[in-house]
Amino acid sequence: MSTKEVYTSEKRGSDETGDGTKEKPYKTVLKALLVSGEPFPSLFVDGQDEQTPYDAIAKAQLKKQTKLYQQEDEDAAKRQQNIEDAKKIKITLDKSLPTAIPIKLRDSKEHREKRVSIKGWVHRIRKQSKSLLFVILRDGTGFIQCVLNNELCQTYEALLLTTETSIHVYGTIKEIPEGKSAPDGHELIVDYWEIIGNAPPGGSDALLNEEAHVEVQLDNRHIMLRGENTTKIMKMRSVVLQAFRDHYASRGYFEVTPPTMVQTQCEGGSTLFKFDYFGEEAYLTQSSQLYLETLLPSMGDVYCIAQSYRAELSRTRRHLAEYTHIEGECPFITFDDLLDRIEDLVVDTCERIMKSPLSQYVYDLNPKFKIPTKPFKRMDYSEGIKFLKEHNITKDDKTFYEFGEDIPEAPERAMTDLIGEPILFCRFPKDIKSFYMSRCPENKEVVEAVDMLMPGVGEMIGGSMRMHDYDELMEAYKVNNFNPKPYYWYTDQRRFGSCPHGGYGLGLERFLCWLLGRYHIREVCLYPRFRERCTP
Ligand code: 4AD
């Protein structure tokens, strides 16, 4: 026996962080043997009780562990030999074959029976035998199963290939035999391949998997985005944006791109993000509405798709600190026209989405999706108060909401889910709504405002008619304690040919949650921003 002593403890030890000392023992005897090598040191294991924390290992146990060690040693040698053998196998590009046509995977169907070359990322690997390897390749436009036979899967690179490695494959696309399945009903019979960029052992699993903690998933959002579901969501985000733009173009709206660094507020001081703008106080915009209003006299109906910011303190499944805001503004309309336009926007955009080539993704993610039908239920706030009472939806202290009180998110959602269809929720008490909203001509206590409420999601659109009378607006600044000075350009709209007008804002992420049946708003963001999360 050697005089060196190595300690192990099943109770207190660790094979990852231990060093074999009394203070930091290894967990297993096998680990101690593998680290020490031969000749073996004197080994100690857990003692009988607290007085004798360690005992010398029993002979029988040592014998058993030595056998395991030898087995492991042989396996390691075999693995090393395989690697050495693999290093000797070299594959080459056969120049006598027909020239490979470089393609993207979306075009693979048209290239059946042709020799092609494809660059992409290893999505999944399945080793069938020593001479057969399946690689599912992904290139952002589609997937294909690549078949690597014989030497092609016996090289050093093939042996160590991991998911997320980028590769270049050459081969012929063949329809798959009946009874077998693969994406698009065909596969690529590879005749040559090479690595473009390696990935760490274990591929993306080295960083996260489906069971990973939410914060770990968010830290690794850049890798999460490579997943199948997330990719579908991000592609639908693109399709949805295009559908909104197509809707607006077909209805004669112009798109504008207002600044997002501003010196005025639109939706209340409590959610303003302040920052230092070359020594002056400025804010990240909460809404582009005020700027859209300034374009009505020159461009008529306008819209924008821009980022809006809200310093929301609470982390809910519907609130972001930064979101994509789709806003429209229209001159010379009535409140009823505004409601019709909101309905048209939602229904027509959904129809466009469901006619797009990727519409299947909506059903993949949300099998129950149905395009809503016009007209939407229209309901006044005062009816909402009644509804809450009739359905016994109360505040925490069991009292009822009364006219004049803001209906918070939870009871509003409870009502929406009970009704189970889109609601244009209208005419709120003036004191709970924004400074710029115009009063209802028939009842000056309420404003011509609307929230579109959707089952499962709650408020998806907020809109209103705007005060167009100069004096009324000046009074509103006063009541809300605003200094009118920074708003001079907004006020001027009421001096230089004012007109009745209205508009709305739709939160793209809330629309996506509704369309794609997602529970949490962070699932539909590229890199979500909310309290304590500004990375990556
Ligand atoms: O109801 P909001 O605050 O209305 C406005 O900003 C108006 N100035 C818009 C206009 O009339 N042009 O916000 C409009 C929509 C909400 O219905 C919601 O969909 C979304 O913006 N939204 C948010 N989405 C995610 N996270 C947040 N913190 C959001 N705040 C509002």
TrEMBL record:
First-level EC class: ligase
Family: Belongs to the class-II aminoacyl-tRNA synthetase family.
Highest taxon in the source lineage: Eukaryota
Molecular functions per Gene Ontology: asparagine-tRNA ligase activity; ATP binding; nucleic acid binding
Keywords: Aminoacyl-tRNA synthetase, ATP-binding, Cytoplasm, Ligase, Nucleotide-binding, Protein biosynthesis
Catalytic activity: tRNA(Asn) + L-asparagine + ATP = L-asparaginyl-tRNA(Asn) + AMP + diphosphate + H(+)
Domain named Aminoacyl-transfer RNA synthetases class-II family profile: residues: 234-528
Gene3D superfamilies from the UniProt entry: asparaginyl-tRNA synthetase, N-terminal domain (3.30.1910.20), Bira Bifunctional Protein, Domain 2 (3.30.930.10), Nucleic acid-binding proteins (2.40.50.140)
Organism: Dimorphilus gyrociliatus
Taxonomic placement: Eukaryota, Metazoa, Spiralia, Lophotrochozoa, Annelida
PROSITE patterns, sorted: AA_TRNA_LIGASE_II
InterPro entries associated with the record: Aa-tRNA-synt_II (IPR004364), aa-tRNA-synth_II (IPR006195), aa-tRNA-synth_II/BPL/LPL (IPR045864), Asn-tRNA-ligase (IPR004522), AsnRS_N (IPR048952), Asp/Asn-tRNA-synth_IIb (IPR002312), NA-bd_OB-fold (IPR012340), NA-bd_OB_tRNA (IPR004365)
Pfam families referenced in this protein's UniProt entry, alphabetically: AsnRS_N, tRNA-synt_2, tRNA_anti-codon
GO biological process: asparaginyl-tRNA aminoacylation
Region (Disordered): 1-23
EC number(s) given by UniProt: 6.1.1.22
Name of the protein in question: Asparagine--tRNA ligase, cytoplasmic
Sequence ranges of Basic and acidic residues compositional bias: 7-23
Cellular compartment(s): Cytoplasm
GO cellular component, one term: cytoplasm
Keyword GTP-binding: no
